[in-house]
Write a structure and sequence with these properties.
The complex is a heterodimer of chains A (174) and B (323). With 174 residues, chain A is an alpha/beta fold. Chain A has one domain: Rossmann fold. Chain A is built from 4 helices and 8 strands. In chain A, helix 4 links the parallel strand 4 and strand 5. In chain A, helix 1 crosses helix 2. The longest helix of chain A has 16 residues. The model of chain A has no long low-confidence stretch (mean pLDDT 90). Chain B is of the alpha/beta class. Chain B has 13 helices and 9 strands. In chain B, helix 2 packs across helix 12 and helix 5 packs across helix 12. The chains are: A alpha/beta (174), B alpha/beta (323). Chains A and B meet through helix 3 and helix 4 of A and helix 1, helix 12 and helix 13 of B.
Chain lengths: 174, 323
C-alpha cells in the first residue's frame, strides 16, 4: 500500500535547509558530500540554491555499499556506483547530506567511509527527512522536516529530476 | 545440469572454471572489479566488506603474483588471510588433503583459494567442503585459471571496450596452459569476434578447432589485423620434454619481437600472464614497450580477485538461508 506524501513541500524544505547551511557553514569554506543516491540528489538541490561559490569544490558522492553492516545477512548490493570525492577532505569542514535519517546505520557507514579518505575538521549532517526509529546515537544538525511513521512504514525519495517522496507500508509482520 | 559453482539463484558460490558460466556473470565480475579499483585511490586502501571473514590461501604449487594479489585483494576487503604453504605443512607429514581441509573448516574458515598441480583439485575440494565455505581456483594443473582469465578480460575491456569487434591472438604453449584454456572460454563467452591461437603443432591441442578458435603455425599470418596479443610463458620442462628444439629456436619462430608486433594492428595491446621469459616468448623491448599492458594486468588482478571473493562470500547468505 502506498500513502501519498504529497503534503510535504520539498522545495520549501530545501530552502529552509539551505538557509541553515548558510548560517552554520558560511565562514568555513565547506565541502559537500551526498550519500548515494537520494542524499546526492538533495545535495545537488542544495548546491543549486546556494551561491555557486559557497562550496569549495564540486559535489562529492559517497556509496556506502562496502561499509554496510548487513553483508553477511543479505550479501552484495546489486549495483554499486563507486564513491567519488573529487577533493582532499583533510582538515576540511564537510556537509554530509542524506535524504532520510532513520536508523542511523547509513550515516554510521558513511562516517566510517569518510574517515578512510582522510581526517576532516568537522562533519555536519543535513537530512531532508528525519523520522522516528533511531537505533544509534546519531542526530542531524540540519533537518528539513521531522515526521513520525509506523515501524513498518518507509519513506524515500523516488525521483532525481523532480524530487518526490513516497511512503510505503510493508506487510504486518515486517 | 546445474553448475555447481552457482547458488540456486545463479550467484557465484565457488569460482572453479569459466566453463559453463554465462556472459552476464562474467560482465558482473568485470563491473564489480571496476567498482573495486577505485578503492586503490583512497587514503586507506581498504573497505570493511569482508571484515571477520577468514580466507585461506592453499597453495600446493609455487606462485608469487597470484598468491600475493589474492592476499592483497582479501586484505583490501578487510578479511583475515592465512597463507598455507602445503609442502611444509601437514600433508608432508602424511595427513590427507581432506583431513587438512576438515581441520581448516573446524577453525571456521570461510574461503579456500586453491592452487594445485593436479587438474580438478579445486573442484574436488569444492565438492567436499562444508556448505559455508567457498572455493576459488587459483590454477589447477592444465585445466583452468579463471581469475587470471577474468583479469585479462578486464584489461582488454579497459583498452578495447567492445568484445565482438576484436581479434585476439594467443601465442605459445596452448596445450599445457590452464591460462589459455580459461582465456579462450572467457573470450568465447564474451562474444569476441575471432580467437586465434599461434604455436608449433607440438604445443597446440589436437582438438583446437572444436574450441572455436582459428589455428596458425605462422606468426606473420596469425598476427595480421589482431587487436590483442596474449603471449604465454614457455615452461622450461617443455624443452626438456622434446616438444621443442631449443629456447633460441622458439624465440626465432614464436617470440614476440618488435618486427612481429608491427604486423598486428598499430593499437594492438600486448599481454602476458607472467612470469616473463625475456628473449624466449617475448623480446624485452616489447615487454617494456608502449603497447605492453603486462603490469596493468597485475594491478587489475587485485580488483578482479576482490570482485570474485566478495561475490562468492556474499552469496553465503543464500546458502545459509537454505541450509
Amino acid at each position: 500500500m502506498t500513502t501519498s506524501a504529497e503534503k510535504i513541500d520539498i522545495q520549501s524544505l530545501l530552502q529552509t535547509m539551505a538557509n541553515d547551511v548558510h548560517q552554520l557553514l558560511a565562514d568555513k569554506n565547506p565541502l559537500i558530500i551526498g550519500i548515494h543516491s537520494g542524499g546526492a540528489w538533495i545535495a545537488e538541490a542544495l548546491t543549486d540554491i546556494l551561491d555557486p561559490t559557497f562550496f569549495d569544490a564540486p559535489l562529492g558522492t559517497l556509496n556506502i555499499a562496502y561499509y554496510r553492516d548487513d553483508f553477511t545477512r543479505i550479501g552484495m548490493h546489486p549495483q554499486v556506483t563507486p564513491s567519488d570525492l573529487p577533493f582532499s577532505i583533510d582538515d576540511r569542514h564537510l556537509l554530509l547530506v542524506d535524504d532520510v535519517l532513520h536508523s542511523g546505520r547509513t550515516v554510521r557507514a558513511a562516517l566510517n567511509e569518510i574517515f578512510d579518505y582522510g581526517r576532516p575538521a568537522s562533519v555536519t549532517l543535513a537530512v531532508l527527512i528525519e523520522r522516528n526509529g533511531h537505533e544509534l546515537p546519531i542526530h542531524a544538525d540540519i533537518i528539513g522536516q521531522s515526521i513520525s511513521l509506523e515501524a513498518n512504514q518507509h519513506i524515500k525519495l523516488t525521483n532525481h529530476t523532480d524530487l518526490q517522496l513516497e511512503i510505503t507500508t510493508n506487510g504486518a509482520n515486517e | 545440469m546445474t553448475n555447481n559453482q552457482l547458488t540456486e539463484n545463479g550467484h557465484l558460490r565457488h569460482f572453479l572454471t569459466i566453463e559453463g558460466l554465462k556472459r552476464p556473470l562474467l560482465t558482473e565480475i568485470m563491473d564489480r572489479a571496476e567498482q573495486f579499483s577505485s578503492i586503490s585511490h583512497q587514503q586507506v586502501k581498504k573497505v570493511p566488506l569482508l571484515r571477520g571473514k577468514t580466507i585461506v590461501n592453499l597453495f600446493f604449487e609455487n606462485s608469487t603474483r597470484t598468491r600475493t594479489t589474492f592476499e592483497l585483494a582479501a586484505k583490501r576487503l578487510s578479511a583475515d588471510v592465512m597463507n598455507l604453504n602445503i609442502s611444509t605443512s601437514a600433508t608432508s607429514k602424511g595427513e590427507s588433503l581432506l583431513d587438512t581441509l576438515h581441520n581448516l573448516e573446524a577453525m571456521h574458515c570461510d574461503m579456500f583459494v586453491v592452487r594445485h598441480n593436479q587438474s580438478g583439485a579445486a573442484e574436488f575440494i569444492a565438492q567436499h567442503v562444508a556448505p559455508h565455505v567457498s572455493v576459488i581456483n587459483a590454477g589447477d594443473g592444465c585445466h583452468a585459471h579463471p581469475t587470471q582469465a577474468m583479469l585479462d578480460m578486464f584489461t582488454i575491456r579497459r583498452h578495447k571496450q567492445h568484445f565482438p569487434d576484436l581479434r585476439v591472438a594467443i601465442i605459445g604453449d596452448i596445450l599445457h596452459s590452464r591460462v589459455a584454456r580459461s582465456q579462450i572460454q572467457a573470450l568465447a563467452t564474451l562474444g569476441v569476434g575471432e580467437i586465434r591461437v599461434i604455436g608449433p603443432k607440438t604445443l597446440l591441442p589436437s582438438d583446437c578447432r572444436t574450441l572455436g578458435v582459428h589455428v596458425y603455425h605462422d606468426m606473420e599470418a596469425g598476427l595480421k589485423d589482431v587487436d590483442v596479443i596474449i603471449t604465454l610463458r614457455l615452461q622450461h620442462e617443455r624443452m626438456e620434454g622434446a616438444l621443442l628444439p631449443s629456447a633460441r629456436e622458439y624465440f626465432h619462430c614464436y617470440g614476440l619481437t618488435e618486427d612481429k608486433l608491427s604486423i598486428a594492428n598499430p593499437d594492438a595491446i600486448v599481454m602476458h600472464p607472467g612470469p616473463i621469459n625475456r628473449g624466449v616468448e617475448i623480446a624485452s623491448t616489447v615487454a617494456d614497450g608502449s603497447q605492453s599492458v603486462i603490469l596493468e594486468q597485475v594491478t587489475h588482478g587485485i580488483a578482479v580477485r576482490m570482485a570474485v571473493m566478495s561475490m562468492a562470500l556474499g552469496s553465503q547468505s543464500e546458502v545459509e538461508t537454505h541450509a
